[in-house]
Write a structure and sequence with these properties.
Number of helices: 20
CATH topology of the largest domain: Rossmann fold
Oligomer: single chain
CATH superfamily of the largest domain: HUPs
Largest sheet: 6 strands, mixed
Distance between the termini: 52 Å
């Protein structure tokens, strides 16, 4: 890569705020710099919104710098109040550690944890052994309560109630930065824009305690063109774990994005050269669908690998008009092959023989958030079985709806599809 990676980050849309642009550009332009991003262990998986910091780390690592991914098992025990209107659920240490290990494994798909190009650490290793009184004397004395209360993260929570344990979070995150500065020479911390105050607190702590120079960079908190939070759907989070959110559904999330988001998403969530991104985002009318398919393929390939991305592409083609039709002398013509890689749920054959209402089945497989919503979609003509519109909520779906391949295809509108087989 030629030039300074900071300039590429800016052009791709990764930069919201920066402590000193000249200093950050210098850090990323001279030799190998060490930078870090933290990921608290609040779940067993990260989600699509987490790809913003992950992709920024990938770009910087590819430019020759060293990434530190901090799994925050220590800070998760306290709970980050940033962007939250209520206190996070308190989890036990064993659960937090297990979730942190799962996130570490997940991050390894994107970053090369070989010590030279990337390091993975857990802040529980240095936070849990801390002596509280010594920590207050050595670290806490450098923090102004007035300044902390002025931070957006705390101002929002003061209206609802801020617990004392959450009030300590900024001190712990700042101490993380100081620890990584001392142990690894880390001079740049990055995070979401809601972390701006916490990151600056670490920059200030390094200056006060060690007389060192360190910088801060934050990413924009993305929302879609429709105003939805990045990585969320009506059915829940777009998880990066294939067991929680299938590669096919992941592919469909990107291919079904708003036309207005295509260019921005290509810049942030793929590794395509910027010249190619500019070509794709200039496409109009039907050409936008080509750009969306490329976005979906590239994003899925990065997270789930080439095989799953290709299977998802074939399944989408089979489900939405690109079927391979094979004549059968007994059963007639039917589709085979790619359709079997669609998200599939096995339903006990006895239940299918008895019959299941559309509202029950569509909700059970996750195509509708509730039976009430499924019934509403039936009234609007938005539910289909095997490409046949379901005209009444009283119709029962049975074994008679199973095709020659042993499955039935359930669709909501033109974009969401699920395959049901008899178990």
């Amino acid at each position: 890569m030629s030039g300074n990676v900071y300039d590429e980050l800016k052009e791709r849309g990764f930069v919201a705020q920066v402590s000193d642009e000249g200093a950050v550009r210098k850090i990323l332009g001279q030799g190998q710099a060490t930078f870090y991003v933290g990921f608290d262990s609040t779940a067993t998986s990260l989600h699509a919104g987490s790809l913003v910091p992950i992709m920024a780390m990938v770009h910087i690592q590819r430019a020759g710098h060293r990434a530190i991914a901090v799994v925050g098992s220590g800070t998760t025990m306290v709970g980050d109040p940033s962007g939250k209107t209520e206190m996070r659920q308190m989890l036990d240490e064993a659960t937090i550690r297990a979730q942190g290990q799962a996130i570490h494994i997940q991050l390894a798909r994107y970053l090369r944890f070989d010590g030279k190009n990337a390091i993975a650490v857990d802040n529980a290793d240095w936070l849990l052994p801390l002596n509280y009184i010594a920590f207050l004397r050595d670290i806490g004395r450098h923090f102004s309560v007035n300044r902390m209360l002025a931070a957006e993260a705390y101002k929002l929570r003061l209206e609802k109630g801020l617990s004392f344990i959450e009030f300590n979070y900024q001190l712990l995150q700042a101490y993380d930065y100081l620890t990584l500065f001392r142990k690894y020479g880390c001079t740049l911390q990055m995070g979401g824009d809601d972390q701006w105050g916490n990151i600056l607190a670490g920059v200030d702590l390094i200056r006060r305690v060690d007389g060192g120079a360190a910088e801060a960079l934050t990413f924009p908190l993305l929302t879609t063109a429709s105003g939805a939070k990045m990585g969320k759907t009506a059915q829940g989070a777009v998880w990066l774990d294939a067991s929680l959110f299938s590669p096919y559904d992941f592919y469909q999330y990107w291919v079904n994005c708003d036309d207005r988001d295509v260019g921005r998403f290509l810049r942030i969530f793929t590794l395509l050269p910027l010249d190619e991104v500019r070509r794709l985002e200039s496409l109009k009318d039907s050409g936008i669908n080509e750009a969306k398919r490329i976005l979906a393929n590239e994003a899925t390939k990065i997270t789930h690998g080439e095989v799953d991305a290709e299977n998802a592409r074939k399944a989408a083609a089979a489900a939405f008009g690109g079927k391979t039709v094979v004549p059968d002398p007994v059963q007639g013509s039917f589709s085979v092959g790619d359709i079997t890689v669609l998200p599939t749920t096995a339903i006990p054959r006895a239940r299918l023989e008895a019959g299941i209402t559309p509202a029950e089945l569509f909700t059970e497989v996750g195509l509708t958030p509730s039976r009430r919503e499924a019934k509403r979609l039936v009234e609007q003509g938005g539910l289909y079985v095997n490409d046949e519109r379901i005209d009444t909520a009283e119709r029962l779906l049975t074994v008679k709806d199973l095709g020659p391949d042993g499955g039935m295809l359930l669709k909501t509108g033109k974009k969401k599809i699920h395959r049901v087989v008899a178990g």
